[in-house]
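Record CAF-1 p60 homolog, 454 aa.
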Amino acid sequence: MKGGTVQINWHDTKPVLTLDFHPISGLLATGGADFDIKLWAINSGQVQKKVPTASYQNSLSYHGSAVNALRFSPSGEQLASGADGGELIIWKLHTSETGQSWKVFKSLLFHRKDVLDLQWSADGAFLISGSVDNSCIIWDVNKGSVHQILDGHFHYVQGVAWDPLSKYVASLSSDRTCRIYVNKPQTKTKGAEKLNYICQHTIMKAEQQPIDDAKSVKNHLFHDETLPSFFRRLAWSPDGSFLLVPAGSYKMSSSSETVNTTYVFSRKDLSRPALQLPCASKPVVAVRFCPLTFHLRGSNSNQAGLFKLPYRLVFAVATLNSLYIYDTESVPPIAILAGLHYAAITDVAWSHDASYLALSSQDGYCTLVEFEKDEVGLPISPSEPKIMNTENTSPIVQKPDDMMIEVDDPVTADNKTSECAEKREGKQASPSLANTPVSNKPAKRRITPMAIDP
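=>
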């Protein structure tokens, strides 16, 4: 693995706010405070054993304000870009004898204020965006119209994510809540089903079980609006088995210091976090999954892992000033990169073949990390049979009962009632991570994920 900050003029020395790799060509798109979108070809540094470099290809100029979020569609035929002032543009790839070019396809106008994050549905037919106007909007891309407005948040929506299995969408706001929406389709007159997302869970606070006669204290699970970043980019795993949520803030007790963390939600129960991944001293601002699925390495067979998946998934966790790379087969991170930028990291992206990982920053530069062939893992080819996680199976092993999550929706209340009933019936509780052997090395103890649960 080689990488570093690439010293080129990305966006006229102004902050680079977002980036994404094209899912087929591997071109890197970046958006910045210069109102522009630029496309770059990434050049390998393996032969010279140097840091990979980027070569400018062309610009997509249309926005009249800073570009905060951009994402290629799953097919790679379209690109969505969101900017200040509520601008949301769909670009379409056109192929001609002279080459390929991107042209404005749709201008989606409804957000009243800055668009901070966006995500495509798995089929590329819909798009969800989050905005400073406190709302999420689900767009029908082909019609270029608003399909549904999700307006439950009370502050900026700084992150949105679309379940790859199309059942859920999730949003994260500086109102210190994560909201999970479930699709309850409406049947139209012609018999076709229409997407209809309703809020199923609103995750807000955690209540620590009291020690002796002490009073229980409720702590917020997420940072407030003073977090020095406009982005809280959350992400679903490629198989939809779990959701990673950044900007976590957790206290073991009322007297302990706050820990910055990433929460892991199991698809089996999205009402509360199943795990947390403690990080460095700075808050987590973005998480992103590698798009590939890998064979198990088997090297950690003697070590109790946190996930029970028949394959490996790899994901990146970006704090304001560092990058952690995890996989689902190990407990500690498989790599940590720090001291990369002079200002806050804003976005993170993987290339389609797991060869590159890119970071953007407000300091006006981007970091490129290059992996050798199969260094991240041996990919599972699309033709190989692969057992995907189901709704009824949790991908997460350890879940101790030591925390209560406060929610404000009846669906979760019903779930809590059934959980209590199961306990009264004497059903065996899930094993606690506290009983799992963990290395005594200080470095590992600092970064070992901790399980939390109502």
